[in-house]
Structure formats: structure tokens, C-alpha cells
Amino acid sequence: MADHNSTPRPGRVVVIGLGRFGSSLARELTAHGSQVLGIDSRAALVQRYADDLTHSAVADTTDETALRQLGVPDFQRAVVAIGTDLEASILTTALLVDFGIPHIWAKATSRQHGRILERMGAHHVVLPEHEMGERVAHLVTGRMLDYIEFEDDYAMVKTLAPAGAIGVPLGESRLRTQHGVTVVAIKRPGHDFTYATADTVVKRGDVLIVAGRTSAVETFADLS
């Protein structure tokens, strides 16, 4: 059971829904030192992950009284990881918003589901299957070594240095002016990543971490 101290403490997270996504997230948070309360309506799942989490409980998360008894309103951070039951996902998110929890992440199974969760008041909407599909698609094409897309049409990619950037300092290569991207870090073969500066000279075989608008970094990666 959760402790009932009414004073919110950092590092405490309630994860609602212990399916594949929720259980993986909850265990990862616990492994990194967070105190995690995992809640699910399915007793078998709660029992399966009970030893991996700080606290766990079986409850109907659309029941306000049940969530209050578990001390959920005391948490600063909450994740609604319910996927297939859209009604439970939306109602649970609405309850967390009513509790005034300042940081609410909610899993969505579609963009429409995500828009509803945002309208209900979720601060962050996650579409894990969609986002992973996009990321893998970029990697399968071979243009990028890694790819991360953020909100507001912004992304970072790991890619090999294109020929046009080789042999000159970044400050003189005019990558930002010509391509609309910023080189954040650079890795030489056999060395660790280091921050890139205007004086950094790019060499053949260097791996770059590049940030910018999604279309700009995708176009830049095509040059490598």
C-alpha cells in the first residue's frame, strides 16, 4: 500500500496501468531510485510486479474514493499507462487533473485519443507505438544512426558527417545558415562524444548529433 503522508515528495511516481508499457516504465523508474506506486485493476498483474515496485495495489482507477485511499492526490507525478480501455484512460486522467497533480503523463493509442487526453488536462501525451514506429522507420532507411523527435516539430539525429562539412571548423561551415541545423556534439572513431564548438573541425568518419526542425535534420541526414 502507499504511504499516506500528505506532503508531496520528489521522486515519487504513481503509475496507473501495469500492462507492457506501464510495467516496463514502473520498473525502470524504480531501478533509477524513484518510489513507485503501481496500480491496476487486474490482480494478476499487480501480483506479478509487486516485488519490483515500491508499492502496488489493485484498484478501479476510475473510482475517486479508491484513489484517495491510496494517497494518489499526494503525488507530484503520475503516469496513466492504460491503453486499450479508452473510457478508463480518460476518466482516470480526469480524476488526476481534478486532484491537482502538477505533472501528468498519459499514454494514448492514437492521435485522436491523445487530443482527448490533452483536452482533459494531461500535461504530456505519449504515443509509444507511433513514436517507436517513426523512429525505427528512420533507422531502417539507413540515413540515420539514431533519431529522437520532440514536440513542436523539433528533432535530434545521430548521423555521419556529410562531405560538405569535412575539413573546416563548424563556425565556418555555415551549417546553420545553409541547412537550419545545429551540431550539438561530435564523436571521433575510438573516442567519446564531446560538445561541438565553432572551432571544432569535422573529419571524415565523425559522428554528429544534430538538432533542428524535423524536416531540416532529416534533409541534413540525407547528405551523409
TrEMBL record:
Domain RCK C-terminal per the UniProt entry, residue ranges: 142-224
Source species, domain of life: Bacteria
Residues in RCK N-terminal domain copies: 10-127
Family annotation (Pfam families): TrkA_C (PF02080), TrkA_N (PF02254)
Matching InterPro entries: NAD(P)-bd_dom_sf, RCK_C, RCK_C_sf, RCK_N, Trk_Ktr_HKT_K-transport
GO BP term (any one): potassium ion transport
Gene Ontology molecular function, alphabetical: monoatomic cation transmembrane transporter activity
Protein name, entry field: Potassium transporter
Source organism of this protein record: Amycolatopsis albispora
